[in-house]
Amino acid sequence: EWKLKNKGTHGWHIKYYKGLGTSTSAEAKEYFTAIEKHKLDFTWKSKKDGELVDMAFNKARADDRKVWMNNYADGTCVDHSQADLSYEDFVNKELVQYARYDVMRSVPCVMDGLKPTQRKILYGCFKRNLRSDVKVAQLVGYVAEHSAYHHGETSLSGAIIGMAQDFVGSNNINLLVPSGQFGTRMSG
Description:
mainly alpha
């Protein structure tokens, strides 16, 4: 609908915001002058709120969290026009989205055995048509720029190094050629 109103996306640029450090001073000033509009007060409404918080953070309740994540209906979200938010709504509408996304990033896909970060690294390697050695930092920059990677260069660097490790115990069939020092069984 937005694309139709604005004649497509030509001339528009999407900026990814990750924390306040991404915002300019003018954007921060604009946001904080209307802080009451953006603020949500959390309210403890019942014993169920405490039960849900316990379920979300108690290590012994992993099975309950699996059921909780599987029961989430896509599209369920918090109504930000309301002035307050119950812990129940926060846990069941916001925190569950984070939990599902975290699992998606952390657990390899059954189809190809790759995590999204590893898939983006391979995409970057194929797009750059890598045939010769390249420094990890150079590949990090290229992958971050061309694959919509938003989770920090240190994390991406660690994933690239992990994909090149070939020593016994690395729990890995290296998909990248380990040209240089990529760790040993003793040092990791």
